[in-house]
Input
Amino acid sequence: MLCDEWEMERDSPDVDNCSPGKCMMAHEDRSGRPAHSGRRALGLASVKLPRGFNQDPMSGKMRIVSKRSLIVVLLVLTGCVSESQSGIVARVEDWTLTETRLADLLVLAQPFPLDSAAVEDLVRHWVGAAAIAQVSSKENLSDGEEVVRFSTWLERDEAILQQEREERLGETVVVDSSVVERFFRDGSYRLLAHVLRRVGAETTQEERALQRRTAQRILDELIAGGSWSAAVSESEDPDTREASGLLGLLVRGELPPELDRVAFQLQPGQVSGVTQTSRGFHILHRPSLEEISDLYALHLRDRFLVEGEERSDQGLLVQKNWLVSSDAITSLRGIAGDPSAWLGTDLLLGSWQGGTLSGAMVARYVLALPSAARREMVAAPEGSLEAFVEQLAVRGIRLSDARERGLELSEEILAQLEEGHRADVRQWHQELAIDETAAPERSNLTRYMEGLVSRRGVTANLRPLFEAWLLERVDWALVESSIPKALLRVRSLLEGVEPSGSQ
Output
């Protein structure tokens, strides 16, 4: 379980008037498919989180393919005391990240939000990078059957569900050019992108002001004719940055109120002014139809399919005699706090005619959620968690029925997924200068992290189960109690005062 709870700060809205700008965006992600409209896409299609629970797409969208912002961590509680006393924030084998070194990285990273949640994600990134460097010298990470299966499980399930959904509902959804133009002009479904400069609960007024100035400078460059890609490169939302800031196809009410008002005032081709939410300072972009016609069509059809499926799912649980366990909600909160520990459990959260919803199955999906969503789940209302469990049950039923009917992925799709994994591994090897024939070099990790925080070498985060698989193969620890100490040192350094008693 995590040592400290995390809460999102609620700021008062600060909305600027919209400003025109010329922006371009990429038309698709590496999968060739759009991230789903206003949902947390769990692959080629999507599963939305229940209403009332982290419904804000700004809170982190989990997308398919290889580039993920999700870092999996299982806190080693036995290290919480002894290692925190030694000034260690994280450890992988004999490599350590100390409070002093973390503070140096954060100073180099400025402006970077100095709140525990943001810094914890950075530390977890270090753990994941150290793990892949350590394991790469011992095992073949590119082609091993087990590692590929762990790495691509979500995409494989999503591809099956997408295929099943297409067979069942595809003929009922027709999206031609006239439909695309009609819905785009109507504006009720809007394909939106954003740039984010993050703030958090512990961000000081000075840091907040610096982030606002940075956002305003990015906006000024856009208005002066700068490219959208250049603007997105400075975004601090890792979940959308790699897809040109794309948030997906949204309707009213799916964004925070501050952004919702701005988003539905934008004309095609416009960017917004700097808008503040609890997450930070945003610049929204509504691309023109000419820029994103094909992408908009894909998103629109995907959305219509999912909405059609939601209607057909309403009676599925009754039809399949779904029964939820009395302790399902308590179990889900435990899973949210420490999903990795539940991957091997046979505890049942519910059952239906012909199948069960196990703790291990739920843990996989929770593990694939953004870290902020997992934190929210620990204290989320029971009704929201009940809806989430039911949603996963529907998903399990659909998958079971598809496999019973013999629905299988083509060799072409499987090959694509496997190549996506191998491409990820190759990129990590390149970024970390890994030589599989030699012992890993700690200095390569140091250079990588320095480049990362300096915006010179951002790479994909590890896929959740791939990282869990890696961490099972190394001795590691993450000491959350050391993060506030590192933050205190950063603020002292930025003020020109050497902190006393620092490690």
